[in-house]
Structures
1.
Amino acid sequence: MKARALMIQGTASHVGKSLLCAALCRIFARAGRRVAPFKAQNMSLNAVPAPGGEMGAAQALQARACYLEPRVEMNPVLLKPAGPEGCHRILLGRPAGRLAYASPAGAEAETIAAIRAAYAQLSAEYELLLIEGAGSPAEINRLDRDPANMWMAREADARVILLGDIDCGGVFAALLGTWMLAPEAERIRGFIINKMRGDPRGLASGTAALQRKTGVPTLGIIPWADPGLPEEDAAALSRSAAGPAAEGSLRILVVRLPHIANFTDFDALAREPGVHLEYAFTAAALRRADVIILPGTRSTVADLQALRAAALDCELLEAAAQGKPILGVCGGYQMLGREIHDPDSIESSQPMMPGLNLLPVTTHFQADKNLGPVSGCDAAGRFPVAGYFMQHGRVIADPGHAPWMRLENSLPEGCQAGRIAGTSLHEVLNGEAGLAAFRRALLAEWRTACGKPAPAQDAADALSLDQRLDAWADHVRRHLDMEAIGNLIHQP
């Protein structure tokens, strides 16, 4: 029997679709429904490994909300922006070449086939599929080649709820305008307003007028809250910019590279006491930072060129000369090395690019991608670590280098030279429970190196990811008409 389908579409990117889907997944799963997430096509640089390859991190989080293991069928098409020429396409977990942003209608038959196959597989296994749209369903310049919104709603015979973000203003115009422009708007059976600050009763006349104009009811107004869950869109970095650093705090800067990827690798740092975490791409930010992190990127060479164009390479070299701790992760680690070799144009047209020469390592890009979870311990064997690889580049360190950690079978991983270190592993700083000891020991080392005092309060074990999902689901449930949403799923 084909699964029932409920779809969350949005008036724009970053209105909260991914996290609302995660909340609904947990709500339905706790009610005993066999529910799974689905997003036909996702454009994101935040990805994670899954059986069969890689998938969008947001759908992996939604799978967790359903108490399921992530699988590539939940996000059959993943597009990774790679500059003005287009994006890298991942089909059912595997690289499938580049796709031009202006690809003509009908040029994506392979994409459609992957979406249909994945959805059919999940639909045969679950009773309810929670589908997330992408961007807006009313992009009238590309309606004929948008497989992620109303086309997908039609394929799945899904009832659609349209989500708007009041925090960025104009929510009624956004909801009404999207309803007016979206094809098959009759599929939209409810509105939800997200990120409300203040008394929602002040919106009553607006929601009533919206229903008079559209015939569509508003099913809930969700107050603004920080669920402490990973964001999908780098737009979140701008809209959640850190305020002034508190006196004595350890100021950590994550360099906001143009193609920053997996920026959620550092979420746990922001929750530690006495830490001020900032994302920026300016010389002033590098100068005021105590610790600098070069994060992952989908375009290592292009972002290294961008660093140089902005003269931030000079700032990094000066920071290293001053003895500031610097950490590179994945693409950032590659930048810290001596050279990046890409003779087969796996990532760029540059066969060789000099690195920053701060670590004794060299990167070689290869067609096959290294994917998968690993575990081990820090180089001294004191603390367990866990993370995952997701890279085309293989980083080769000089003989006799000091590794930053050791994986299973004592395999060296990463490199350390004084206060500069790098690793190819994602997520090593986000460990929960016993894995948090590595992060806190590293923070202690950084504080000592920077002459910063220990935090006034001890580091408390934060809520686990499942506890945060539960709390977020409870918050959302309190402010939605779940009876109406439940009935909606079974409407003809």
Note: The chain has two domains: 4-229+468-489, 249-450.
2.
Amino acid sequence: MHFLYILTLTDHYNGPANWDDTTNATLGSHWNYLVDLHKKGVTQLVGRTSYSPGHKDLIGLAVFTAENQEQAAEIMNNDPCVKEGVMTAVLHPFNLSLIEGKMPEG
């Protein structure tokens, strides 16, 4: 099954003045977590909008596979930015329909 989680900075981290070395280290861990999931074939798409912190439309997203909703929630909640409160995340079941390089059947 596919799932999507959408990440949003918490209010505290929408202001660049609140970022410090710990925040930057958490972001590095977040990136490494997503890269590891990608290497394992769990994620199909990871990205973010190209806005700066503080912009109302700044979000990140990950489309990934999991066996069920519980496993998907575990993957999302283990994201370091979620665990450390830098970002909030919302999980959605997701139908992955068209992927570059793969034509739909039928």
Note: Residues 21-39 form the longest helix (19 residues).
